[in-house]
What does this fold into?
Amino acid sequence: MVLAGITGVIGGLGTIAFNFLLNSSIEFVQYLVTILPDPRLIFLIPALGGLANGILKYFTVPESFNSCCATDACIEAVHEHKGEVKSRVPLVYMIAASLTIGSGGSSGRECPTAFIGSGLGSIAYKIVKKLKLNRLFNFKLDQSDSRLMATSGAASGLGAIFRAPFGSALFSSEVLYTRGFEVGIIFPSIIAAVISYAIFSTVYGFEPLYQAKANWNFTIGSLFFYLIIALICTGVGVLYTLTFHRTFRLFHDAKIPNYVKPAIGGLLEGLLVLILPQVWGMGYDVIQNIIDFKLALGLMLVLIVGKTLATSFTIGSGGSGGVIAPSLFVGALVGSSVGSIMTSLIPQFRGEPYIFAIIGMGAFFASVSKAPISTSILLVESTRNYSLLIPLLFANTMAYMVSGHITIYSSQKKEYKPEAEDVFATITAKDIIQPVKLLFSPQDKLSKVFSTIRSQPRQDFPYAVTNKNNELIGVLTWNEVRSVPIKDRDATFVSDVMMADPFMISADVSAHYIIDLLHEHNIKHTFIVEDTDTNKLLGLISRACIITYYDDLLPHLKL
It folds into this structure.
């Protein structure tokens, strides 16, 4: 309760700061648009915003270019780094996302807000730990609390910006996996999200994000419509996800500086804006027009393709934005289009047009995010139309089940496993690491290598080769060593036969990750370094020492 409350307060204040920066950026760009000598020059603004975003991230958080979007980075931080986020990340993402979205980039503010919230939760954990505030309330603080505060922080940011605290708390637990929830996160996340929502809404108002009148009546015939919408949304969602990931991969692998890539993506999106101005920015006003049934069918069909491409260009190129708002945008288009066609073919099932759009929003995002339950609650809260809960749950669940494992968040794990089932997920390499008994330098002769190995108990290749700074620079394998004839071993140095690109991993990864690597590469051990930038050798981990560690740990596990 204490940690979640602290996270909620900091998350709420952080979301207010981000929203202020974003609104200021949008207002400034709107002013720039009015003074352009030629309105068609508007296509340059997303490119300039992308360039500024790229330069900022390149010099502050260059690793962010490896994540598809902000929520993906948030999920990765929770799974791979136990919720630890660099302290500069929240401020950087506030500015970077404001640059991307404010300049018209086709992206949403929800994903950056969630990641900013995670970063603020991580900062809050460090403050509590540094000041030893946990002693004031007489509770123990451990590494799992860092993870909890990061997920609660994500819920606090999303709950405030989406005006949906309960759905956001569920989302922070559900989005971590393609199958299932992590239940222990939900209740702290609810506390953090409600507090953050109250603080944020005190400043920006308690009005719902979308307007949808609540005068709908459920009938059994309605299920037929929702099923058709769900199935079509799933199909379009698969194409949307594949397009997004393919674009991200093309930009990621391109041999050009990372800071230039968002500018290229922004330029491509800007050119699309000249044809389809509706793809500009977050598109909340367009979503409301879709809900109000103000767009023609032909335009909606074209916008499905246009918004998919615009979002892929903006975020896939390295722009700082999220896929939630664009996904809801495309989902509303698909739902409203299908509803228009179906009701014209079957007039007796005619219903409120806004329902088709909202059902499409839910089913589409549930299929691409693998979060059907939380998406239902998010949309019910953000529209204040609680009569939509049953149709949303039905359509979202159908879309989720039909879509399989295809997801827009590549960092999601398949399913949640409690600690008793997956104990190695919470154990890092530092807990199991063993010292390296034999080390060789590049200047050692092979004759010395053979004599040293023979004088020791049997050990398995490969052997580590380090420099004078104890940095791992290569490994000796049996095939390379035995290929040198005996008569030549006095004249052959380790540097002549070693593999200069050694297989190694950093000390902060989980033991579960190491087990998977050993199995995947069919090797008996791997070398552990302090980090992959310095390559300072710390030790090694083998299959045998993992089994020994588990045997020692087993009596203490709560199975």
Remarks:
- Residues 56 and 539 are 36 Å apart (CA to CA).
- The beta strands are 177-179, 413-415, 439-440, 463-466, 472-476, 504-506, 525-529, 537-542.
- The chain has 22 helices and eight strands.
- Residues 2-34 form the longest helix (33 residues).
